[in-house]
Specification:
The complex is a heterodimer of chains A (about 425) and B (about 525).
Chain A: E1 29-32, H1 35-39, E2 44-45, E3 52-53, H2 56-64, H3 70-73, E4 83-86, H4 104-115, E5 120-121, E6 128-129, H5 132-141, E7 147-148, E8 154-155, H6 158-167, H7 169-177, H8 180-185, H9 192-209, H10 216-234, H11 247-257, H12 267-283, H13 286-290, H14 292-298, H15 301-312, H16 322-337, H17 349-369, H18 376-393, H19 399-402, H20 406-417
Parallel strand pairs in A: 1-4
Antiparallel strand pairs in A: 2-3, 5-6, 7-8
Chain B: H1 2-8, H2 10-19, H3 27-33, H4 43-55, H5 61-64, H6 133-146, H7 150-163, H8 170-186, H9 190-203, H10 207-220, H11 222-239, E1 248-255, H12 262-272, E2 279-288, H13 293-313, E3 317-325, E4 345-351, H14 363-373, E5 378-384, H15 399-423, H16 429-447, H17 460-470, E6 473-474, H18 479-490, E7 496-500, E8 512-516, E9 519-528
Parallel strand pairs in B: 1-2, 1-4, 2-3, 4-5
Antiparallel strand pairs in B: 5-9, 6-9, 7-8, 8-9
Helix pairs in contact in B: 1-2, 6-7, 6-8, 6-15, 7-8, 8-15, 8-16, 9-16, 10-11, 10-16, 11-12, 11-18, 12-13, 15-16
The chains are: A mainly alpha (about 425), B alpha/beta (about 525).
């Protein structure tokens, strides 16, 4: 079973859409490589001189130097069947052919990560990695994170941050404000940075809107809880910088903050606020009805009651102005379009953003023609993003829809958060 | 000063009175009335004053009062090392102002060859003079005490008194602390002094102050976090070992670090097994010689915060505090409901707990055996490395035994004070609090009988021997944990290193040492039944 894989293949096939890992093409040829092969670094061997190379392209370049006659220069032309690889480790889930991985590099990395010895170590902290690229990637961000507690103290060391956090007065205060039921929902928090920055936001929010948003704190808590879990998946395991001045965190802060602050309806964050609601959607159907609430709250007052009203009874839209309808369409549009980004959660931040914007563009294109009030929610959402889209392009025209002083407040709000 | 010497022997006081000039007569009044410390204005200083005023009998005013003998040599922050006598020293510092007393008349021993210009001094600054003067003086004094040479004792104590200060550099502080201990010993007021000191510190104890001191200490020095990281690593590995993973974990925490160890463990638990975080219960036992309401209040607050934090982390958590007055070996571990009906895996965490047990009556062995009976999955022992057990006998040590214990205490606490000095910034209330605590330990060590002492540390070899004979086998720290510890040490200033205990013979100690300037100071180990 464990044979050496033939190194010569055709040039890599056209880039296929990435499917879920571990669900291979049923027609593919299953290759089981030995651990030795998987760990070998110079897989590609030149048949002429025997030199080993890590990459096929490097081997080809090398072979050119041998001045081969044309016939021999050609690679074996047989069309290789699609190959999938199984992990040699018996206890591993990927050992079974039905859960094979499609990429050779993938199986190698998997084997190293899961079953290999962790030879690479970050020299700043003590985290160990089996794959060198993982370690390098980590080293870039290690030590650059700053941990900020609710009370304002900044730490450069994670352990002192955690110990401080556990005994910090801010912790005691915050628990007093937020209902206990919210706290109980915050389970399995993987990313501490979001944990603590959201506490920061939650405490700020609660502080600012304690009276007004008494009933929405429930949703807030749930949303944050779910969103955080999703977000942690999304962020792929949390080696992102936590520094509050960086954009990532800014987005996430606005992510949490935005639905609840009528003062900061800046466009960019509203994208993420919509995203947040999208993200929350798959987890519980409840979100669909609840999430528009905060968004609608963030709309300036002259629309809010109307929207609120409309949300309750979507069928009755007669008295609503065109702008209100468009807005609603935008809001709901994002909702629907957000289903797609889910599959690519592993991709990074910016790609998600791109995808969202592109989907929004298409959606806004659709709803431009006619507000499809068949699904009123869709209409609301897509219009919202229509605004954003237009705003991005032309800048200035549609700002009124989102709020009186939206752009100005945007700028200051970011400063305020930072 | 008169009072001090009067207590010892009438003869020398006659000498003194003969020598004293007219201004000397004003001294007694000065002693008793002048309590103000002029040098610092901080609130801590103010509290210091009150503290000393409260806890000291009149005798203590003598060396606590900085302005005492202001006209004689030690203006502490200016010329700290000027010995009163120039006949026996090879000092290169500036000439001394004329002392009120002429110590030459005290016929200081000629053999006191204090080298104040030691070239080995690496510290610069105000204390440009030799580094180890206090050690030499203290050793000489201890030798004299052991030999019951009261005359010499007085001379040396007088000198120490002149030179020491609780607010000076490391040497001065050491001198001050040991002097306090000597004094208590010579006046046979060891236990009483200790009680007074403890009561005073209790009065100032609060959650705020405790938290601040503990956290700051961990921030600037790995002294306590070393043991925490090693212990947490071992505990986690034992608990999360896939072959025997359990959903309910219980930790019996015998420590004096106020649960600062647990937040990182909670976080690790939460992040490691994200979906099925096991339930964790921690039972913390806090012991003290006498029950203390302040400590109870502090622990209550700590408990609340821990519970909130665990909720935040998403770890099912339960927290219990047990306050135990008296010796830990008297605590009945079976009453603590550690098994929770039999399903939980147990870990026992002993941070500085074992040395609090009296070395007499095999109490230490009793406690360790009791722990063994609990059948824990792992026992982590963190202790400070010092051979202070002495004879293990009943009464106060005399003679050679005392001298041996004294030398070891001096070595250990010198390292401790030095590390504190270098880790904390120049002025730090937290460091003062820690030094005061060390001062209390020293009074206990120098002036109290071993059987009642809670400070009789033992070496790694000693503890290992005990653990082995109780039926434990050492569990080596994994490479991961060792790496964690090394990474921890890298985060601190220079001077800290880690060393694994040598495993040459069967009786050798297990575990790892934290070393300060190549000297082992803290020992961490893990044991399995």
């Amino acid at each position: 079973m464990g044979g050496e894989a033939i190194s010569s293949t055709n040039p890599p096939p056209a880039k296929k859409k990435r499917s879920l890992p571990g669900t291979p093409d049923p027609e593919a040829e299953v290759i089981a490589l030995s651990p030795k092969t998987l760990l070998a670094t110079n897989r590609f061997l030149c048949e002429i001189c025997g030199k080993g190379f890590q990459r096929d392209q490097n081997l080809q370049l090398h072979r050119r130097g041998h001045n081969l006659p044309w016939k021999l220069r050609q690679r074996t032309s047989k069309e290789p069947r699609k190959r999938v690889y199984v992990c040699p480790e018996k206890s591993c889930v990927h050992h079974h052919p039905s859960r094979a991985l499609g990429d050779l590099t993938g199986i190698k990395k998997h084997f190293c990560r899961k079953h290999g010895e962790k030879k690479w170590k970050c020299d700043k902290c003590s985290k160990r990695y089996a794959v060198q690229s993982d370690c390098k990637a980590h080293s870039k961000t290690c030590g650059t994170r700053e941990y900020r507690c609710d009370c304002g103290t900044v730490f450069s060391r994670r352990d002192s941050f955690i110990t401080h956090r556990a005994f910090c007065d801010a912790l005691a205060e915050e628990s007093a404000r937020v209902a206990a039921s919210n706290m109980s929902r915050l389970t399995s928090i993987r990313n501490d940075n979001f944990n603590f920055t959201s506490d920061l936001i939650r405490s700020n929010i609660a502080h600012d809107f304690s009276g007004a948003i008494s009933n929405t704190t429930m949703t807030e808590g749930e949303m944050i809880g779910h969103a955080r879990r999703e977000l942690s998946l999304w962020m792929g395991g949390g080696d992102h910088t936590e520094n509050l001045s960086k954009r990532n965190d800014l987005f996430t802060e606005d992510l949490y903050g935005n639905p609840f602050t009528s003062q900061y309806p800046n466009q960019l964050s509203s994208i993420y606020s919509d995203e947040q609601t999208c993200i929350a959607l798959p987890r519980s159907g409840m979100k669909e009805t609840e999430s528009p609430h905060p968004l609608l709250l963030s709309v300036p007052s002259r629309y809010s009651t109307q929207h609120h009203h409309q949300h309750q009874q979507m069928a009755m839209v007669p008295d609503v102005s065109a702008t209100a309808l468009l807005q609603k369409a935008a809001l709901i549009g994002v909702n629907a379009s957000c289903a797609t980004p889910l599959s690519s959660f592993e991709t990074n931040n910016s790609s998600l953003l791109d995808m969202n914007l592109s989907s929004l563009a298409t959606l806004s294109g659709n709803t431009m023609d006619n507000s499809t009030l068949t699904n009123p929610l869709t209409a609301v959402y897509s219009t919202r993003h229509l605004m954003i889209q237009k705003d991005d392009e032309r800048g200035g025209e549609t700002r009124d829809f989102l709020g009186v002083d939206a752009p100005i407040i945007c700028a200051s709000s970011w400063n305020g958060w930072v | 000063m008169d009072t001090l010497f009067r207590l010892f022997s009438p003869q020398s006081s006659r000498d003194l009175s003969r020598n004293s000039s007219s201004s000397r007569s004003s001294e007694p009044r000065q002693i008793h009335h002048q309590h103000s410390f002029l040098h610092h204005n901080s609130f801590a200083r103010q509290r210091e004053v009150e503290f000393y005023r409260e806890e000291c009998g009149t005798e203590h005013h003598l060396y606590m009062d900085e302005d005492f003998s202001s006209s004689s040599s030690s203006k502490h922050f200016q010329n700290p090392h000027q010995p009163p006598s120039t006949t026996t020293t090879t000092t290169t510092t500036t000439p001394t102002p004329t002392p009120i007393f002429d110590p030459a008349d005290l016929s200081l021993p000629q053999d006191l060859n204090l080298d104040f210009a030691s070239p080995s001094s690496s510290s610069v600054g105000a204390s440009g003079a030799g580094r180890r003067w206090s050690s030499q003086l203290l050793i000489e004094c201890a030798r004299a005490v052991a030999a019951r040479d009261s005359h010499r004792v007085q001379q040396l104590m007088w000198m120490l008194n002149e030179l020491s200060s609780p607010y000076g550099d490391t040497e001065q502080k050491l001198a001050a602390c040991f002097l306090q201990g000597f004094f208590a010993r010579l006046t046979s007021s060891g236990p009483r002094t200790l009680r007074t000191l403890s009561a005073a510190s209790d009065r100032n104890c609060s959650f705020e102050s405790t938290r601040r001191t503990a956290l700051r200490f961990q921030e600037v020095s790995p002294w306590s976090s070393f043991g925490h990281v090693a212990a947490n690593g071992a505990i986690l590995e034992a608990f999360l070992d896939p072959s025997s993973a359990s959903q309910r974990l219980h930790i019996l925490d015998l420590s004096n670090t106020f649960c600062t160890q647990w937040p990182t463990l909670l976080e690790a638990l939460a992040t490691r097994s994200a979906d099925d975080t096991p339930h964790l219960s921690i039972t913390t036992v806090v012991w003290s010689a006498s029950p203390s309401t302040a400590v109870q209040a502090v622990m209550r607050e700590i408990g609340q915060r821990m519970e909130k934090f665990a909720r935040l982390m998403g770890v099912p958590f339960r927290f219990n505090v047990v306050h135990h007055a008296g010796d830990l070996s008297d605590l009945d571990l079976d009453t603590l409901d550690l098994r929770e009906g039999g399903s939980s895996a147990l870990a026992v965490n002993c941070i500085n707990a074992l040395h609090g047990v009296s070395p007499a009556d095999h109490r230490r062995e009793t406690l360790i055996a009791a722990i063994r009976r609990l059948q824990p999955r792992i026992v982590t022992v963190v202790e400070e490395e010092a051979d202070l057990e002495g004879g293990g006998g009943g009464g106060e040590e005399e003679g050679e035994a005392f001298f041996k214990v004294f030398k070891e205490s001096l070595r250990f606490f010198s390292a401790y004070f030095e590390s504190l000095e270098e880790s904390f910034p120049r002025t730090s209330n937290e460091r003062l609090a820690l030094e005061r605590e060390a001062g209390r330990s020293l009074v206990d060590l120098v002036a109290c009988p071993a059987a009642e002492s809670a400070e009789r540390r033992d070496t790694a070899a000693g503890w290992s021997r005990r653990m082995r004979s109780a039926g434990f086998a050492p569990a080596a720290f994994s490479e991961d944990v060792a790496d964690d510890v090394r990474a921890l040490l890298r985060r601190y200033k220079e001077g800290w290193t880690m060393r694994a205990a040598a495993e040459e013979s069967e009786d050798a100690s297990a575990g790892i040492f934290l070393e300060w300037k190549e000297q082992p100071v803290v020992w961490a180990s893990a044991w399995k039944p």
